[in-house]
Specification:
D-Maltodextrin-Binding Protein, domain 2; 41% helix; five-stranded mixed sheet; 347 residues; 2 domains; 12 strands; alpha/beta
């Protein structure tokens, strides 16, 4: 049987007042929580630069004890610049300089930026450890393998070198949205984005490593850091650029400029308006202060300390723009990069 309860006027008023008190205290709690909102720095772009920036982000967040969050995405260099020039992110990771069409997009949106080189990378051609024939490859052999004219025609190792097996190779690489793809095609084929299309593309270099590790006849190109983390799974190919035999990527060959044409600087781009925010300014300062150590931990090649000090000066003096003309010269060394940066700063 249902029971009915009668409330007098005092009960009703008391109930309403209690509800109002609970409601006000609830609003006060939300407002109080709102006062402790965590500030977020948004970064996106290159999968090559990602391991460095992510390492910096983790150390920075730990030092701030959770007061600042750094969100690092991976949409490729092209995707990162698209977001950057729309003002959607504070910092873009880039494995190549900003291109002219991206400059125009940023200019149209009123986005000014500072270009900061953070490390050198060595794009590394990797094969399966069971591949005992292509320990060294010439630039011409790589071009013959990857150029657009090779599609559907050059499919076997023996077509590149008569001493190699008469077996079909399988190609993997970063996709066309990647700065690594842009640089590789420019350096090897001679024109940006000029490539055969019948290769399998993945933006995640770890996936490229796994594909090569699973197939004796596979070949890919990846960032040096990804190779170094997986040396038990894949083998690096020495590159012969007609200067006296094959050269493997290493600290020495990057520093002295002999690993060519696949060594290159990599960058972050900082939105100048975002750089006015204390948390972004503090993050960039932390990045430059700790880059020498964290770049090495990510298995890339740090720049000299004076380069990171110069970067902070560029940010402080608002030296906006780029020292490049929308493309990266092939064969650029660390010394060449520093001279180029210094010239613009002096001007």
């Amino acid at each position: 049987m249902l029971k009915f309860y009668r409330f007098n006027l005092v009960d009703v008023i008391t109930f309403i007042l209690l509800g109002m008190i609970v409601g006000v205290s609830g609003v006060t709690s939300v407002a109080a929580a709102g006062n402790t909102t965590i500030k977020t720095i948004k970064i996106d772009g290159s999968s090559t630069v990602y391991p460095i920036t992510e390492a910096v982000a983790e150390s920075f967040q730990a030092s701030k004890k959770g007061a600042i969050k750094v969100a690092v995405g991976v949409s490729g260099t092209i995707g990162g610049f698209a977001k950057f020039c729309r003002g959607e992110i504070d910092i873009a990771n880039a494995s190549r300089p900003i291109q002219k069409k991206e400059m125009r997009a940023c200019n149209k949106a009123g986005v000014q930026y500072v270009e900061l080189p953070v490390a050198f990378d060595a794009l590394t051609v990797v094969v399966n450890p069971k591949n005992g024939w292509s320990k060294t490859m010439t630039v011409e052999e790589l071009k013959k393998m990857w150029e657009p004219e090779a599609q559907g025609k050059i499919t076997k190792w023996s077509q590149l070198n008569q001493n190699w097996p008469d077996e079909a190779f399988k190609l993997y690489g970063p996709g066309p949205a990647s700065g690594s793809f842009d640089y590789f095609t420019h350096a090897i084929v001679g024109e940006v984005k000029s490539s055969r299309h019948d290769f399998t593309a993945f933006e995640d270099h770890n996936v490229l490593i796994e594909k090569v590790a699973a197939d004796k006849n596979a070949l890919a190109f990846v960032g040096f850091g990804y190779y170094m983390e997986n040396q038990e799974k894949v083998r690096a190919v020495a590159i012969d650029n007609d200067r006296g035999g094959g050269v493997l990527p290493s600290d020495e060959t990057i520093e002295d400029g002999t690993y060519q044409p696949l060594s290159r600087p990599i960058f972050i781009y900082v939105n100048m308006k975002a750089a006015e925010k204390p948390e972004v300014k503090e993050f960039v300062a932390f990045y430059m202060k700790n880059a020498s150590v964290l770049v090495k931990e990510a298995r890339y090649f740090p720049l000299p300390p004076r380069a990171y000090a110069a970067n902070m000066e560029f940010l402080k003096t608002k030296r906006v723009g780029t020292v490049f003309e929308g493309f990266l010269p092939i064969g650029l060394t660390i010394d060449d990069l520093l001279k180029r940066e210094a010239r613009l700063y002096e001007n």
